Amino acid sequence: MVSRSYSNLLDLASGESPFFSREKKRLPRVATVTGVLSELDDESGGSDAPSSVSQERMIIVGNQLPLRAHRSDNGEWNFSWDEDSLLLQLKDGLGEDVEVIYIGCLKEEIDMSEQDDVAQRLLETFKCVPAFIPPELFSKFYHGFCKQHLWPLFHYMLPLSPDLGGRFDRSLWQAYVSVNKIFADKVMEVISPDDDFVWVHDYHLMVLPTFLRKRFNRVRLGFFLHSPFPSSEIYRTLPVRDELLRALLNSDLIGFHTFDYARHFLSCCSRMLGLSYQSKRGYIGLEYYGRTVSIKILPVGIHIGQLQLVLNLPETESKLAELRDQFGGRTVLLGVDDMDIFKGISLKLLAMEQLLIQHPDKRGKVVLVQIANPARGRGKDVQEVQSETSATVRRINATFGREGYKPVVLIDTPLQFYERIAYYVIAECCLVTAVRDGMNLIPYEYVICRQGNEKLDETLGLNPLIPKKSMLVVSEFVGCSPSLSGAIRVNPWNIDSVAEAMDSALIVSEAEKQLRHEKHYRYVSTHDVAYWARSFLQDLERACGDHMRRRCWGIGFGLGFRVIALDPNFRKLSVEHIVSAYKRTKSRAILLDYDGAMMLHGSISTTANTEAVGILNSLCKDPKNVVFIVSGRDRKTLMEWFSSCEKLGLAAEHGYFVRPNHEADWETCVSVPDFDWKQIADPVMQLYTETTDGSTIETKESALVWNYQYADPDFGSCQAKELLDHLESVLANEPVSVKSGLHIVEVKPQGVNKGIVAEYLLSTMRLKGMLPDFVICIGDDRSDEDMFEVIMSARASLSPVAEVFACTVGQKPSKAKYYLEDTTEILRMLQGLANASEQAARNAPQAAQRAVIAESK
To answer: pTM, whole model, 2 decimals?
Structure first.
């Protein structure tokens, strides 16, 4: 059985009666214009509607469908699978029980009058849903924003001049967003959102996750980036940097080829969005509004079965024999690259020239075959690469060539796949000198082809019993480099180094070549495209495991949209509900953090919030209330700020000092014999302060705090981890605890935390015969979790009918059961409680008077 929306399309396409009951309104078979079909369907119920899917489905979305298209002589369109397409190859790893639907563009332009018929045929025959993009819009999207802005920037090229990518063009960005919206509409035509998986591919569709998440809050969505992701210093120059980051974070799983690419993405999220990541049991995750966005690091593989089929073709064997005769025993070096500015073709040619200069004995014996695939983009830079490459080849051949020998063979015309395979088989060494490349699978293909087969061994006169051999010279700036540990890694910009590596590859022993080949072959053959796809799907299933368990809702507009996902028991505190409970209770305990709860974090104000002080005074005047401010600040600051609140209890330095009211003396909750440990900790903190620009030390009576809020986020975090380890080491025998918090590392006496203030307050009230029947505790960070834990488990100290409200600031994982968005909402709620107390005070004399009159009667 298939989903309702997909079944609609199949039923309408086949002309059969629909399986599901319908209203009279009918939809076109496949929409060919922008629009959300599900919004037109009377039965559409959004992401929470019950599903009718029993078979697991994967919707794969890419810029291009894995199809070839051509017109026959009679003008009819003919379509076939593109066996070279990664999107088609990855299907092998998803399992036979997974139904796959493809969404993307066709390489050929289809006339408007033919689009309906073509869409119907592709859906019926290939389960492909084409996105028809108007030519002008597609040009702005692909050749404009993708190729002029994203592609150069992701390959570390800044638009310093109009010739280098061009200045940012807002109209191209709008075209990019529009095309992503069209793709989203196509996904919505076929998706069953609670059951299907959606896998989006590459930088062409980076904002697509936002459109899908906005329509279906619980959509199971993965994204894989096949290009590099640049460092934050490069990426931050993009005017729409935040929009793209937030759009990607609407995915459940984001995949990268290498750790470097993932690290750069995480750094951008940290520096530009203030998000931190954690590694739990080997999985990297970003907490984003209650959702955990998982990060996947796994390089893609190749389709080995397809290569082996081509290796077995008679055409391959005959082409190999032709090449054997052509090169006549000379050693062949091979380069296979697209003709673009980042593939380093000219650098490779210069290295070959340097090799021939430095090693005259190689002349006449070594040939570099450079296969230059047609460029995917267009423009002045491509033309310059072509002309430079041709000129360099002519110069080298003119200098070192002779009759019957050309040191460089440039092939810049399209080759059949079997021809390229034959070049792989005959080459002793493969060279990849790209200056920046997302993955580059050429070395993988080369290794598999060098393994060969019996027929090819016979053609080359090789003994099939002797282990195969191969050599790789690989740029350290390509994604496949980390996985090829036996390759000679080079900096392609260093021409001498590349030439030296080429020479080393030629003179290394046969046994060494065999060992390196065996190592690479073992890795490539076990990490093929099916392994990659299967691993990604498994991680996507894990990342989406708790979708249905959590409450979800969307906030934000446009590309700033995101989904809040919270535990079902974690909900927003209703002011009406808490005021109602407040009014009917008689013994109340109120515990309030100040910084971050009643005043914004990072505020440079040196005085207390006037509004907050007024509210606290009103609450303290109510004889039914015991109110405490629990802060990490020192007691001198708290006394100055709240001097006008005579009945307010204060807890300073996270509970080390406590004062029940203005007239009482300060007392300590924890007995500390001495603070000699400060003489050990302070010099260590001073050292890290001197070496970390923007960091400071806060000296308290009971604690030392190292603050790096204004330091570089990455360096500050790194230094904080080092400082934490350093302090734990030197203070191992001291009665202190060393803890890290939000931009701080703190050393304080053991046992000191805000939880002891909650215990102190509740025990004091119990000794006075006051069992609290109303407890509210509000805090905003990790230090307040101790208070939440105490009041949530303190039933013995409370009235049997007590109502307990543990409330954190913002929607985040917490031991609290309630949240309020910000300090404004907290003050509004506290003002509601204060108003209730004031009203009760005004009504009290009238009630007493009525009681006296009643007694006199």
So the answer is: 0.79
